[in-house]
């Protein structure tokens, strides 16, 4: 196929509509948010236009530092758990028959369509003492009495990993299905058991895809704000929860905007990093 | 019993039979070529020997020991894949050292072994390069070196040279044969290229439709094909169908004296193009009259296509023996009795 670089202004025509949409619904609101983040809050009221750094200066508090580092650690934990679960799963999935693969992918997509609220309440029920999974363990004689596992850090992790898992599989799927199956066969003839071959060939051959996926899931988990509230205690609340709280309940729009801008910049930085890693993989 | 033995080895996928029950014995140190068109079951056979596919029925014996159900990673066979399957995340040296690393061989010994193997495939000093920096022929050698790293009992190659251009392929065929002779390693190569099989093999196993048609030395396969498929697949040939009557074969255009004919009934014979003799006179013993339809002079040999009673026959002559004939000329084609091979019908 011939591909020519656009030369005249009219050549850019096809992208005019999406560009306008992006400008209208992303660039403009984001610009407004950046502007608001420098505005002055009016106590008991709303905010007034100004140019102050005070909203950003509040990042330098212990409380903010604690929330930020918890958010980062939680997102990192979710990313590692999701990829650790999804990578072997996706590898086995790509070895199945085409039809079975399609069925699984459709199922995962439908999980992806569940709202965060439903996921949160479903897990809250599943992890509760009254109707939860521990009742099953008691029935099997593995536990003495049913206990509540929610709210807690474990519950938050389970909820977000559940939500991130289909997403992770879908991101890993193209790379794993492109992997030459004879690599694994070669590893077997050279003396690797299937498990050893998986760790010495499949994982290292796709290390860049794994890193890129980790960053993607990390960014995804960083934006989570409902599940930490539904399944966690206040100390498990993330930066996103704090932003919602500031914006909706404390009516401190400038500070919420400043935090949102910060979060977007961190996310963009990480996505950029993942693109860079992906580019290196393609070049190799 | 020493060597590799296949005892009724069979592979079925549902109702499709990829490999009919196959019996084959390969003594130690032999170079075997599994030769046939695509889909004939040759790769299936090789993969079962490697342990990558499990047979539906039958056994695989190595030196009398049943290895049918031994997992691939415990067989210690070296295998070269059609795609080469070099690990993209490892350097050349790390690729070759992979089987050693898996077995916990000390680093220093790994390095020595890599150098020795690179010397063996005549590519010294590339251990630190990335696989992507090598040419097709060089990658080929690396795949061979890696497969030989364990000094395997069996060396298996699945269409190893198919990705190379014609000239390089010829050179690699000779090199592979010399390497095998030097190491004395039992080798099985899958190929669809009969020249490749003729160049390298001690034993050619011709297969089609999941069945072994003939297993013999290259020259036997060529001179004494077991059936019309083998005769046609290996090189060019002239196949003539006829009827036996009064001790000779009646074909379109005349009667031929052929040794080894059945007492009566239909029979097919195969005659190689270079065995045919073209005469300017139509009459003579074992001669069929015909008309030259096309001549092509390829420099090293001359190929003549002759219309004999409506069927085309091909004759090949060296430039020195070239008969003085022109297209359109009426000629006599002689089929020397000893060069005619009677094929089972």
TrEMBL record, chain A:
Keyword line: Cell membrane, Membrane, Transmembrane, Transmembrane helix, Transport
Listed Gene3D superfamilies: MetI-like (1.10.3720.10)
Domain of life where this protein originates: Bacteria
Pfam families tied to this protein: BPD_transp_1 (PF00528)
One cellular component (GO) term of this entry: plasma membrane
Matches recorded under InterPro entries: MetI-like, MetI-like_sf
Membrane-spanning intervals of the chain: 12-39, 59-90, 102-129, 149-176, 197-228, 255-278
Localisation per UniProt entry: Cell membrane
Membrane-topology descriptor: Multi-pass membrane protein
Broad class of the protein's primary localization: membrane
GO biological process terms, semicolon-separated: transmembrane transport
Ranges for domain ABC transmembrane type-1: 68-274
Family annotation (PROSITE patterns): ABC_TM1
Protein family per UniProt: Belongs to the binding-protein-dependent transport system permease family. CysTW subfamily.
Protein's UniProt name: ABC transporter permease
Source organism of the structure: Azospirillum griseum
Taxonomic lineage: Bacteria, Pseudomonadati, Pseudomonadota, Alphaproteobacteria, Rhodospirillales
Automatic annotation (TrEMBL), chain B:
Alphabetical UniProt keywords: ATP-binding, Nucleotide-binding, Transport
Claim: Transport is one of the keywords in the record: yes
UniProt-listed InterPro entries: AAA+_ATPase, ABC_SmlMolc_Importer, ABC_transporter-like_ATP-bd, ABC_transporter-like_CS, Mo/tungstate-bd_C_term_dom, NA-bd_OB-fold, P-loop_NTPase, Transp-assoc_OB_typ2
Single GO term (MF): ATP hydrolysis activity
Xref: PROSITE patterns: ABC_TRANSPORTER_1, ABC_TRANSPORTER_2
Domain annotation ABC transporter: ranges: 4-234
Cellular component, GO, one term: ATP-binding cassette (ABC) transporter complex
Top-level division of the source organism's lineage: Bacteria
Family affiliation: Belongs to the ABC transporter superfamily.
The protein's name in its UniProt record: ABC transporter ATP-binding protein
Organism whose genome encodes this protein: Azospirillum griseum
